[in-house]
Structures are given as C-alpha cells and as structure tokens.
Amino acid sequence: MVFLGLITWLSVFFNGAVFSKNENHDVILKFSKLKTKKGKILISIFKSARGFPQDEKSAFKSFVEDPKEEIVLKNIPPGKYAIALLHDEDGNFKMTYNILHLPKEGFAFSNYKSSLLNIPDFDDAMFEHQSKTTNLEITMVY
Predict the structure, then answer these.
(1) What angle do CA 125, 69, 95 make, to 5 degrees?
(2) pLDDT value of position 20
(3) In angstroms, what CA-CA distances link 112 with 12, 38, 39, 75?
C-alpha cells in the first residue's frame, strides 16, 4: 500500500510541477528615434490602470536597461499589459522638466503614438501578450 502511494505521488510530482510547461515568453521592444545612448531606459509594465503611467510602485514589473535599439523583457506571463518608458539621460530616475513643465527627456508608451501634449490611459497603451514572443515598436518622444 505504501509502495502504491509512493508511485502515485511520484507520478503526480513528475507529471505536474516539475515538468510543467512554462507559458511565459519574452516581450521585445524595438526602438525608433532613440536620441542618444546616454543614461538608462526605465521601463514599467502595468497589468491594470492603477498607477499607470507614472507610479512605478504600481507596476507589475520594472526594468532598468542601457539604451539600445532592441531590449528584451524576459519571462513575461501571458496577459494584457501597458508599458511606460522613460529615457533617463541625467540618471535621477525620474522625468526632468523644463521651465514650461515640458519633458526634457524622452518617453514613450506601448501601442500608442505619443506626443508632448497627450498621455494615454491604460486602454490606449494596452497590448495583449500571448503564449509566444511579442514584438512592440516603440517610438520615443523627445
């Protein structure tokens, strides 16, 4: 009886958690209009409208990357997301504004054509990440 219980437990163990298929895949950000490679790219991924786009503490995941034409965000579970990005050229980990309170550093949002006058809501920037790699074109606004 103990042997049968052990066989059943091993069967569940090896067919379940240990060998379960990982459904997480990468999100690849392809940048256009990246002004400089100075500073860092701050990336916040949001799963809901709560805190989007400025409260990185409400983000599902955050990344700090070197500026380059392509950035790979690894192991992201399937779901609906919106991404806010900041090209933090001065290294202070926040947006720097000029005297007219216009951004001095580059920014962008997923799935949205950004402008200096418009900040999208979550639904406008949302994209669906399925069980495969997702490629997003990101146009920075400076």
Answers:
(1) 55
(2) 41
(3) 45, 24, 23, 23
Specify if 16 maps to a domain. Answer: no
Which pLDDT belongs to residue 33? 82
Does the pTM surpass 0.85? The reply is no
2 assigned to some structural domain? no
Is 51 part of a structural domain of the chain?
yes
The model's pLDDT over 15-68, given as tens digits with 9 standing for 90+, comes to 444 434 568 899 999 998 889 999 999 999 999 999 999 898 999 999 999 999
Total domains in the chain come to: 1
95-to-101, 128, 139 alpha-carbon distances in Å:
10, 27, 17
**96-132 burial code (b ≥16 CB/10 A, e <16):** eeeeeeeeebbbbbbbbebeeeebbebeebbeebeee
Residue for token pair 């006058």? 117
- Domain membership of residue 6 (yes or no) is no
Kindly report whether the peptide bond that precedes residue 53 is cis, defined as omega within 30 degrees of 0. yes
CATH code at position 61: 2.60.40.10
